[in-house]
């Protein structure tokens, strides 16, 4: 029987990866041709050639619906136009991608489930899937981010572990083997067909092969490593290093300094993974894959965190410092800093303090001091680098 694929999530990245999944599901006999994509239902209408939504928090007039007001469900627009006009405008989706507003219907009978939703959606959405997906189904998380325990040693919690736990909550529920897909993947570039690489972190090679078959195309090269924790943690830790790269840019430091920050950052990412997930057999080669050095470089040269850290440093130098939330609101056009307004950097610091290993992470420590403790940005280079030797 062919694999039945469900895509849970339809934002910018979810819609972009749908362009690859749809093509492969249609072309390969290993997969059922039809792929359901869960869409958080919104209402849209076209005005002056642009698709718009009701204002945030707005409600239709009493006794009426948004449809009465001339709006159309986003799922209907996607299925008729084969385009996500809100989150990936201008890109045609494969015609075998079927938008669905009900997640239970989306995953009904699914044997392979791809998760691309904000991690704060997990708790309300995953329980609705109970009893719907096939026994023996496997999952793959494309969700970048990380949670931390709130007490004790503040250990980082993998999103893939949270997903697995949510799906196992009810009595008799199966354990879903989870993989991850991480890498240097700017969604719009992937959707346009610009060449990119990605890394599958898996627990079982046979499942890694299945995911590679689903995602890999001539312009989207995917390789698997049996290292879920290493691949996934890279996707979160890069955002901390990007702050350091941004401080360098804001200070006008050259390529040598920025390259040093990136190299040191990669080493500390690797060390962090081994300190907190050494029992998962973290592999050194993972950090040389797309999920590691490639994603780190992309984020340190073009990501939101780099941009805002650049501005943060320039404002301090000019004597007009601004808080992170102010910079975010002014510069990101409604988008958010990666890592919950740099909260990842704060949680990382709490974790390494709780573990008693602060001295092993001079870059992470200095980034935290600059971002949250009032240290001057130029102290980014005041690190005890001999701790690396």
UniProtKB/TrEMBL annotation:
It holds the Pfam family NAD_Gly3P_dh_N. The keyword 4Fe-4S does not apply. Residues 4-206 form the Glycerol-3-phosphate dehydrogenase NAD-dependent N-terminal domain. GO terms for molecular function: glycerol-3-phosphate dehydrogenase (NAD+) activity; NAD binding; protein homodimerization activity. It is an enzyme of class 1 (oxidoreductase). The active site is at 238 (proton acceptor). The keyword Nucleotide-binding does not apply. NAD(+) binds at residues 9-14, 40, 121, 187, 304, 336, 338. Substrate binds at residues 144, 304-305. Keywords: NAD, Oxidoreductase. Its EC number is 1.1.1.8. It catalyses: sn-glycerol 3-phosphate + NAD(+) = dihydroxyacetone phosphate + NADH + H(+). Residues 227-381 form the Glycerol-3-phosphate dehydrogenase NAD-dependent C-terminal domain. One of its GO terms (cellular component) is cytosol. GO terms for biological process: carbohydrate metabolic process; glycerol-3-phosphate catabolic process. Belongs to the NAD-dependent glycerol-3-phosphate dehydrogenase family. NCBIfam families: glycerol3P_DH. This is Glycerol-3-phosphate dehydrogenase [NAD(+)].
């Amino acid at each position: 029987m062919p694999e039945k694929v469900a895509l849970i999530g339809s934002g910018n990245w979810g819609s972009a990866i749908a362009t690859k999944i749809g093509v492969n599901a249609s072309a390969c006999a290993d997969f059922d041709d039809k792929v359901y994509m869960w869409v958080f239902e919104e209402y849209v209408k076209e005005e002056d050639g642009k698709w718009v939504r009701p204002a945030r928090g707005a409600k239709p007039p009493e006794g009426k619906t948004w449809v009465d007001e001339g709006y159309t469900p986003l799922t209907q627009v996607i299925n008729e136009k084969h385009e996500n006009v809100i989150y990936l405008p201008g890109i045609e989706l494969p015609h075998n991608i079927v938008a669905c507003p009900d997640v239970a219907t989306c995953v009904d009978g699914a044997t392979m489930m791809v998760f691309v939703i904000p991690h704060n959606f997990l708790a309300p959405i995953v329980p609705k899937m109970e009893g719907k997906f096939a026994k023996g189904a496997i999952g793959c998380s494309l969700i970048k981010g990380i949670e931390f325990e709130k007490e004790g040693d503040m250990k980082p919690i993998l999103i893939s572990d949270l997903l697995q736990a949510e799906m196992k909550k009810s009595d008799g529920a199966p354990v879903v083997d989870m993989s991850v897909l991480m890498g240097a993947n700017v969604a719009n570039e992937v959707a346009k067909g610009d060449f990119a690489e990605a890394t599958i972190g898996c627990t079982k090679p046979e499942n890694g092969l299945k995911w590679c078959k689903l995602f890999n195309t001539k312009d989207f090269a995917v390789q698997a490593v049996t290292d879920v924790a290493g691949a996934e943690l890279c996707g979160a830790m890069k955002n901390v290093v990007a702050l350091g790269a941004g401080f360098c840019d804001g200070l006008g430091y050259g390529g040598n300094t920025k390259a040093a920050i990136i190299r040191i950052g990669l080493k500390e990412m690797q060390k962090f993974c081994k300190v907190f997930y050494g029992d998962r057999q973290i592999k050194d080669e993972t950090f040389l894959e797309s999920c590691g050095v490639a994603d780190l470089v992309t984020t340190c040269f073009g990501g939101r965190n780099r941009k805002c850290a650049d501005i943060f440093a320039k404002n301090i130098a000019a004597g007009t410092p601004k808080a992170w939330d102010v910079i975010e609101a002014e510069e990101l056009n409604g988008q958010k800093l990666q890592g919950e307004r740099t909260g990842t950097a704060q949680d990382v610091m709490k974790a390494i303090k709780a573990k008693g290993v602060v001295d092993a992470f001079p870059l992470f420590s200095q980034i935290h001091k600059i971002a949250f403790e009032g240290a001057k940005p130029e102290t980014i280079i005041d690190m005890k680098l001999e701790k690396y030797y």
